[in-house]
Amino acid sequence: MCGITGFVNYKKRFSESDRETLFQMAETLNRRGPDEKGEYVSDSIGMAHRRLTVIDPENGSQPMTKLIGGNTYTICYNGELYNTDELKDTLKLLGYEFCGHSDTEVLLTSYIAWGTDCVQKLNGIFSFAIFDKLTEQVFFARDGGGVKPFFYSLKNDTFIFGSEIKALLAHPSVQPAVDKFGISEIFLIGPGKTPGTTAFRDIKELKPGHCGLFSNEHGLKIRRFWSLAAREHTDSLSDTIYTVRSLLLDAINRQLVSDVPLCTFLSGGLDSSIISYAAAEEFRKSGRGRLTTYSVNYTDNDKYFQKSFYQPTDDKYYIDLMSGFINSNHKEVVLDNDMVGDALIESVRARDLPGMADIESSLLLLCREVKKTHTVVLSGECADEIFGGYPWFTNKEMLSRADFPWSGNTKIKAGLIRGDYLKLDPEDYVYQRYISTVNAAPKTGFETPEDSRIKEITMLNISWFMQTLLSRKDHSSMYSGLEVRVPFCDLRLMEYVYNIPWSIKSYAGREKGLLRKTFEGILPDEIISRKKSPYPKSHNPIYTKNVENKISAILSDKNSPVLEIVRYDKLSELLETKAGMFSKPWYGQLMNYPQILAYIYMIDVWLKEYAVDIV
Prior knowledge:
Layout: E1 2-8, H1 16-27, E2 36-41, E3 45-51, E4 64-68, E5 71-81, H2 84-93, H3 103-114, E6 124-132, E7 137-142, E8 151-155, E9 158-162, H4 165-169, E10 177-178, H5 180-189, E11 204-205, E12 210-215, E13 219-224, H6 237-254, E14 262-265, H7 270-285, E15 292-298, H8 301-304, H9 316-326, E16 329-335, H10 337-342, H11 344-351, H12 358-371, E17 376-378, H13 383-387, H14 396-400, H15 410-415, H16 426-439, H17 449-478, E18 483-485, H18 491-498, H19 502-505, H20 513-518, H21 525-529, H22 541-555, H23 568-576, H24 593-609, E19 613-614
Parallel strand pairs: 10-19, 14-15, 14-17, 15-16, 17-18
Antiparallel strand pairs: 1-3, 1-9, 2-3, 4-5, 5-6, 6-7, 7-12, 8-9, 8-11, 12-13
Helix pairs in contact: 2-3, 6-18, 11-12, 11-24, 12-17, 16-17, 22-23, 22-24
């Protein structure tokens, strides 16, 4: 994985000051790509790359340029292709030659051979930009799952892009301005965000499965190249199990390719256990030695753990069970609770936006430790979204509610905002985004009412909740130069499972029942039967006290930027009542009182560090 950035303006030549701007933009991405730096400048365009070396260290440098048929093509690319060998074999039959074995060269050659249709042939996670010098156009794209980010802005005839928001903000044309929509995003949608947007007025995010052209002749044009498709599912239960297992194991095995040390995350849950099992088996077969697995915990968490509807069991017993079963070299990273609270600042810097509180800062610290010994890690994100693992797939009240099931309390959230900043109807703002996604859910027209609703909930999860988790994972890991791969986000698997009827998907009346059945007899019974438990959070009162102190400091400083937006009396009430006005988590399953305080604190940090201008 890497960091990419650049800008193009066909109406002016690239100047020395533009070169300096390009360099400064690229320098913001050094954490994403600590191994190598590269820039490309032509008449009207500059592109820069910061490399994290994973495949073909000698021949994978970027920006990469190829001269074919008198034309020059140059690529900046962030990601991994998992069908590199197949594409390369096909391209060789078409007469193309290669200098190395990097997926970068295969991707660039795919564009040369097939033009913008090349994206239809890619299996992987990616965001990239290719400059076609002869036609004077930049082609850019983002993978269908939305694993790799691509931000852009069009200002004063200049198309500006980058892997992170901070790269765009380093360009003088892009200002950190936030309007009424941005305020609504932060407080009503956040830490999620409306697809295609950021909280910053002038910065957009390319939606998953979309690509675009910026040309001298036609300006900026964006189109969708991939989306879920509804199909009738006619496979029997046994055939469905076989196909799911085949697709998932193939996705995992494809993602084990690496020229640098690779490991897996292991929480003792079903998803990470499947990935770790498959990886350990492949390591044994290919003579790669013992697999290393990682988990996260907090100081004295066993002492303070509180069982809840969302988090019914602690991870440690199941981690030990699974690690022993696959004979992995397991490493538990135990985090200091004050350190988790203090790392909230770094999480804002990593994401360029307020994030998922300690659920985000702890991941950042975990990834920092993993990076000391490994460069690539496989993780279990996206399984719950496609197999129906969350409570809102089975809880009748959550399933039927005309709202994002992982988020509620819209009126209470809106009540935190000072009236002069609450310029949009909060409930309508949220509802319009909910209903537009529900209406876009692909259907055959022959679904039962139950299957119709499950497809709507799945579409909501893939388009919104999953994107929040993927953004958290990308920015928290790449902040330490660690590449995370997510096999459950394989598009072939996602589309197949999307169309499986709920009666099969919820086999034996269990959440993720089909996935459990698929690996029954392969994984230990206790892993198969374990009720879903989300990413672990700290239950230690030391962490709670840490964030309470941070909010108290804000309340005692009248110049705290968040107090310009948030009502002082409501923030005081939040602290005094321990968020008693919130009947549900702020977001997801874990953002309760300490996390709500942490999120408000992250907003304050963001406003301050990014010199956000409320317009």
